Amino acid sequence: MPKAYLPVLIYAVLVMAFPAVTLILAKLIRPDSTSTGPKLKPYECGIASEGHSRGRYSVRFYIIAMLFVVFDVETMFLFPWAILYRSWVMAHMGLFALVSMFVFLGILLVGYVWLYKKGALEWA
Amino acid sequence: MQAVTQATTEFVKQNWAPLVCGFVVVAVLPLIVGYVVLVERKIMADMQARLGPMRVGPHGLLQPIADAVKLLIKEDIIPDDADKLVFWLAPVLSVGAALLAMAGLAIGPAFQIAQGINIGILFVVGVSAMGIFGIVLGGWASNSHYSLIGALRSSAQLVSYETAAGMALVCGLLFAGTLNITSIVQAQYDQGIWFGLLAPVAFFVYLVASIAETNRAPFDLPEAESELVAGYMTEFSGFRWSLYFLAEYTNMIVVASVATTLFLGGWLRPFPRTHWLDFIDFLPPLLMVVIGVYCLIRVPKQPVRVQQLFMLAVAGMCFAVAVVLAAPMLGPLLKPSLASAMKPFFEGIHGGFWFIFKVGAYIYFFMWLRFTLPRYRFDQLMRLGWHFLIPLSIINVLLIGIAMIVGQYFDLTGPSLLLTTIPASVIALMIALFILAVEQKKEPQQQPGAATPDSYA
Q: What is the ipTM for the molecules in this complex?
């Protein structure tokens, strides 16, 4: 199987070469930058920039990131189940497959409802 | 040395098709993206009753090339406070992930770079999700408030809709039973129906989630020009900026291709197994001929001689494509013994046409939404994701699972499975809408002006 990924590896090299080559090409043909002073400061609609941008930001972004880990891992677990589900249904064992996934998703749904009640999914 | 040469030739002999595909994709995709942008501008102009780009070439047909040259010779500005290395690397990462995701996709049965990869769809989804690193790093490295907020918004948005999109894909995979791209399309051929019809709610969820994931209007909060100038791209200029732009449109093509493969029957023509509809096979060459004739009619109306020649060239190209499309069908008519030899060519060429046609229709729908709907607010966007799409997609997966068992109980296969999956989809939609309605009733009406706006949302 790893052999099937060889073309992908070569393609990856090609893909990485594309932006590198174009950036170098652009460097060769464009005029040198002579900009100094305010032009090289962060853009803030013309006024001088206030403070440093690497400050603190809303905690909600962290919450969203943590929730994502939970839900996305769950989706990943669903993929193999989804692949096999059809063959299980064909073999008249669909109910077993469905119930086992119900248990898994049920636990997750309890967590979802708890988050919902806590207001973790509220933005404003 | 000789051993190395021999190994190389052996390798090229074995893998020449994927290698050629790779070269073609890397070389042609930037051009295609340029023309997608031109088409978008033209459609936007048409919907707003104006002409759009008209100056460069007839009807602005050379505009993308002029834009590319302009971007190449622009001054390169790296802000003083920026993190130079990350600033350099971020757009490369973004465009790299987007282009690499194309490796897993199959445009027609033959045109695929990563043939025989058994995790097809998973590869595409996983690699294209890496593009978010480019956006976050770019926003962080440029050390500007607008960039940072844009990057944070973009990551929060992508992360929120990734789950819903994944669930929608799971729903389609329930019917396919495989992750391999070729096998998924084959499964749709065998069952005689597109999975998008079997699971319409999953297709809808994927449609909405894919718009949000590619940061397109009405969910283009990360680059909302009225609030954030240009979001994470604010400090980028010249060719670095165009790399981000390329990544964005390539991502659009990637999500459209995934949706086409899984929900819209990939490279199969509509109703591939209904034989009295075989005349559909003749439509693609006819369409190209009609476009070519239209271009010929327009030739005398072009004001400049160069433009007349260019229009003539476009017409000739259309006729050439028509001939290529028609050749594998006309060949067996002239000489019946050619029929079996022509079949792979027919499938490859017409498969490519239908795939590109469906991807184009999907992207056209994206554009249409962009010109029609106003932008969402960020809390509305998050609510749509977490309160509606995620519960809807989870319930949908469970109900489709039940529908498949019920269908098997009554021995329903192929299109007749619609009898169970459509009610299941409707019930899932109604449950999700009910949850939304209950929540809105419970919520006390907010006084206008009572809530303090959050500057960092």
A: 0.86
